[in-house]
Amino acid sequence: ENVLHHAPVFAVLLPLCVCKFIICYNSITMLRIVHTRYVYVREVISNYGLSALAEIEWVRLKVPNVLRTFWVLRMGEQMIQILGSHYGEGTFSLYSMGKTLLVNGCETLTAVLGMTSIISCICHHIGCFFQWVLSVEDEDEKNIGTVSAILFYILALQTGLTSLDRDKRLVRLCRNFCLLFTAVLHFVHNIVNPLLMSLSASYNPALHRHLRALAVCVFLIIFPVTLLVFLWSHFTLSTWLLAVTVFSIEVIVKVLVSLATYVLFLVDACRTTFWEEFDDYVYLIKAFGNTIEFAF
């Protein structure tokens, strides 16, 4: 009985001794690694700042991938639970399950971070899609996913998304999505605007590139108009609705200004004589656009 009583202690002693031996044997290597890392961190902070170090480590540790995997696994588990408990019932529908998953997907700050990483990935691919449509490679606009993620997370913190009850949380989440959509439209305009100016100024004969750029501009006008019609017909006046309206009108005005400037450059390129009023017209159009943007 005494042997059996002390058996757990003896069973732990051997692995403990092995662990201590391995730690002592590799202590010099561990200290060298810690010292090397300390020197590296100190150099990065002194040369580039703490924010640069955080960004480097964020990428090195693949934090977005970890958060994205966490959120997807969490939603997958909840989906399986919902299907196992309510599938086949009369009140069950994919729409209600989707609402439940969205509400549960932002109930804690960690869950919001996971949803933010998913939104970042989606917005990044949206930006890549429009760059593919326009056949452009703009390095400055590849951060659309990062900026969209930051915007969504700030909106979630400002509106207290995690502290709201389930119904209000879903409404607030949809409102934040609307604001995010309008921000993405501004990013898309920043992609298509330089292309329009380049095509018109150089009088590029490639018709398909002109048509693609113009098709994106038409989308940037139709989508916010459709969104505003839907929102104003289903919701009452509020500060959130005014914000979405202002941002949508702003992107429409910016697109119209870009199209007007594009037409002026095309007309000037097609003319055989010097157009004296050309610079004045361009200045007036851009001044109008900047005034509207400043007012909003």
TrEMBL record:
<keyword id="KW-0863">Zinc-finger</keyword>
<feature type="transmembrane region" description="Helical">
    <location>
        <begin position="212"/>
        <end position="233"/>
    </location>
</feature>
<dbReference type="GO" id="GO:0061630">
    <property type="term" value="F:ubiquitin protein ligase activity"/>
</dbReference>
<dbReference type="GO" id="GO:0036503">
    <property type="term" value="P:ERAD pathway"/>
</dbReference>
<feature type="transmembrane region" description="Helical">
    <location>
        <begin position="6"/>
        <end position="28"/>
    </location>
</feature>
<dbReference type="GO" id="GO:0036513">
    <property type="term" value="C:Derlin-1 retrotranslocation complex"/>
</dbReference>
<keyword id="KW-1133">Transmembrane helix</keyword>
<dbReference type="GO" id="GO:0043161">
    <property type="term" value="P:proteasome-mediated ubiquitin-dependent protein catabolic process"/>
</dbReference>
<feature type="transmembrane region" description="Helical">
    <location>
        <begin position="109"/>
        <end position="132"/>
    </location>
</feature>
<dbReference type="InterPro" id="IPR025754">
    <property type="entry name" value="TRC8_N_dom"/>
</dbReference>
<feature type="transmembrane region" description="Helical">
    <location>
        <begin position="173"/>
        <end position="192"/>
    </location>
</feature>
<dbReference type="Pfam" id="PF13705">
    <property type="entry name" value="TRC8_N"/>
</dbReference>
<feature type="transmembrane region" description="Helical">
    <location>
        <begin position="240"/>
        <end position="265"/>
    </location>
</feature>
<keyword id="KW-0479">Metal-binding</keyword>
<feature type="transmembrane region" description="Helical">
    <location>
        <begin position="144"/>
        <end position="161"/>
    </location>
</feature>
<protein>
    <recommendedName>
        <fullName>TRC8-like N-terminal domain-containing protein</fullName>
    </recommendedName>
</protein>
<keyword id="KW-0812">Transmembrane</keyword>
<feature type="domain" description="TRC8-like N-terminal">
    <location>
        <begin position="2"/>
        <end position="296"/>
    </location>
</feature>
<dbReference type="GO" id="GO:0008270">
    <property type="term" value="F:zinc ion binding"/>
</dbReference>
<dbReference type="InterPro" id="IPR050731">
    <property type="entry name" value="HRD1_E3_ubiq-ligases"/>
</dbReference>
<keyword id="KW-0862">Zinc</keyword>
<keyword id="KW-0472">Membrane</keyword>
